[in-house]
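Q: How would the structure tokens look for this protein?
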Amino acid sequence: MSMALRGGHNLKSKLLKLRISQGFVITFLLFSLLHAFIITKSMASDIEKVYFAGGCFWCMEPVFDNIPGVTETTSGYMGGSKETANYQDVSTGRTAHIETIEVTYNKTEVDYLTLLHAFWRSIDPTDMDGQFADKGPQYRTAIFVSSKEQEEDIKQSLIELESLKKFDDPIVTKILPESEFFPAEEYHQNYYQKNTIHYNAYKIGSGRAGFLNNKWGKSTDN
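A: Here is the predicted structure in token form.
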């Protein structure tokens, strides 16, 4: 075989090996991307959002933030008749929205019943006019539901709560259909962390801390 032919054969062999190598790399990358997509999709399907109204939303965020499996809480508004909501309008009762907490959690790490138990232990469910020092329909308690399974869990949690005989008056917390959630202004988010001194003073001054300590022996955000 001449040098020219041998050189051409070697070049073709190298090109073939390069193409095989490139094909392997591309296949590996595609497989890795597919695997990452499947994992991400699986993780996303484990994340759920639920909504609770327990009076001033400042006091509700730490209740759920302290629960393992809860990934995020957001203060906001739900249940109103207007197409938008902000603190000024909601606080004066002009939109019929309720101060609400959006709780994002991983259902493989914590279940809905655990969140319900924490909710009941952080409010006065017998007050139909608001919560503690905050009075008005925008401060009433409610649980917003989006499924039959949630309704069943709520019924179970109510049976368990009533069996404890902690309250003389009937429980008046509303069970309402989930509707559009409007996040509150940024200065309301994580207020208990941003303004700890004022938050603690408010929690005590409003009567919430004393009520919860009297009923449960401690406040659920401790």
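The longest helix spans residues 3-45.

The CA atoms of residues 90 and 170 lie 27 Å apart.

Upvote if useful.
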